[in-house]
Prior knowledge:
By secondary structure, the protein is an alpha/beta fold. The protein is built from 7 helices and 8 strands; from the N terminus they run βββαβααβαβαβαβα. The protein has helices at about 30-40, 55-60, 80-95, 115-125, 155-160, 185-190, 215-225; strands at about 5-10, 25, 25-30, 45-50, 100-105, 130-140, 175-185, 200-205. The strands form 2 sheets. A 6-stranded mixed beta sheet has the order 4-1-5-7-6-8, with helices on both faces. A two-stranded antiparallel sheet has the order 2-3. Strand 2 (about 25) and strand 3 (about 25-30) form a beta hairpin.
Amino acid sequence: xxxxxxxxxxxxxxxxxxxxxxxxxxxxxxxxxxxxxxxxxxxxxxxxxxxxxxxxxxxxxxxxxxxxxxxxxxxxxxxxxxxxxxxxxxxxxxxxxxxxxxxxxxxxxxxxxxxxxxxxxxxxxxxxxxxxxxxxxxxxxxxxxxxxxxxxxxxxxxxxxxxxxxxxxxxxxxxxxxxxxxxxxxxxxxxxxxxxxxxxxxxxxxxxxxxxxxxxxxxxxxxxxxxxxxxxxx
Length: 234
């Protein structure tokens, strides 16, 4: 099993300026994913896809490879992660690299455990019909309590009226992608151009590992987790 771990780290974050290199617990955010990926063994390579020379130097200093600087047209707000992944895969194919798997790791999920990545890759490898595997977490709140924005909570009221009582037993266990990792068999991703197919496996991660840093409140919570030694720094 030879895997390319691709860490995507464009510059220009608006919610938290320079989020991907901002210091979290004294460490640039993207370093958490680099160090975890590097710890996984010799049958993998860790590449950074970035549009920033500054980000590239930080990544290289930590031990990742930066084989290219991402073109500006793939570093816009509207750029899809699929296009970024395909760009890196095409670079690999055109430059003599050979991999069995592609793994996307985003800096905004710094606390995914090493053993989760190992177990997910092994599960995908032994499930012949599966194309990919994606980290998921329990959905909160349950969609019983979700509706389109409106003046009145009519849809929620209708949902609740169908329940006998508000106990956990009434709610189905629902899951949602956590952002923690996306792994696909190489040829399947080239063909499907997506980590999501009808044969995508789900891999449950705990709530702390599933933390995704999008806004300042997420950042503050991540700092709290490190300060209280609830998580390791990488």
